[in-house]
Amino acid sequence: MADGRSASSVSGESLLFLTDEQLRQGIEAMFFAYRGFTADPDRILDDMAYGRAHHRAIHFINRAPGTTVNNLLAILGVTKQSLNRVLRTLISDGLVESRVGRNDKRERHLHLTEAGRALEQTLSDAQRTRMRAAFRTAGPEAVAGFRTVLEAMMDQEMRASYIRLKETGA
Amino acid sequence: MADGRSASSVSGESLLFLTDEQLRQGIEAMFFAYRGFTADPDRILDDMAYGRAHHRAIHFINRAPGTTVNNLLAILGVTKQSLNRVLRTLISDGLVESRVGRNDKRERHLHLTEAGRALEQTLSDAQRTRMRAAFRTAGPEAVAGFRTVLEAMMDQEMRASYIRLKETGA
DNA sequence: CTTGGAGTGTCAACAAGGCTGACGTATTGT
DNA sequence: ACAATACGTCAGCCTTGTTGACACTCCAAG
Q1: Do B55 and B86 form a contact (C-beta atoms < 8 A)?
Q2: What is the mean pLDDT of chain A?
Q3: Range of the domain at B83
Q4: Which pLDDT does position B13 carry in this prediction?
Q5: Which bases of chain D are contacted by protein, using any atom under 7 A from a CB?
């Protein structure tokens, strides 16, 4: 906390963006924006028997097909019991397929079915539409800043997961 | 869906930051970052009998002292029953004070007590520490972009609340 | 071959914190 | 006088998180 002190007085650049008031505005921005961020898929899910937890599972299974339950657990940061409840309904509803591992048959590899991919598409379309509008309004430089700050805000392991996914997808 | 493609060919400025892959990374960044965002206060609250809902109430009561229940309801976006449950414990634990309105005696104006302010300080210190570290790492331009994107991502009414608070605090 | 441990699934019980609906009580404004 | 507003509360439901306990399958080491 006291380490940035020396650097701050060095140059002429003001560190006014680090005042408590600025930080509080950042906090409130996160709070309000996250509500918007989840609002659209939530609306869709309410019409079904699903919730946000189902969305998250579907998203990351789609993103990393064949992932194991344990891996998904780590990414989502919940207990296996909690995930299992969600997974069970998704599997029995035919949206997710659980395949026994070839090398290690204890593992279950998760894949979306055709129906699962369809739902994923619907949900992420809704979410991307909002994100796209926000990105377009803000412009490329703002988006770069947005990503930089968010990345710096993550926990260590979360950042690792995030980067792993990022590199996989690119 | 396919519109991010077609728009990309329009002008000389590349719209590569609007590809589905970029949007998806933005979505995942929000997901992981929000976890970090709430992690520190959550840890503190776990040791008490409180949860994230209490934190939110305390935050906004501190931010807008004397606010009415209805107003708080609108900001938090929950039902009065849900808020009341939280408020009841905070009041009976002596962290929040509910004063009958002078002009309109139906209204209750909410204030933090000394103990309430102390807890608020503890919680927001934890949250601001992380936010400050992230801001400092990212730099002022990134922070500006961060805020711009988040603001564009909010719902209409949320943005109104956000801006109202912003102007009040400044 | 036996056995320990890892990965997984499942049951039970519980809590936080959302929600709806209904009702009661002041208080205020028409 | 009456309707509307602001608030509190009871009751009940849902999702999604938690712990704890236990069983099963399979792999690998002894």
Answers
A1: no
A2: 90
A3: 19-138
A4: 65
A5: 5-12, 15-21, 25-27
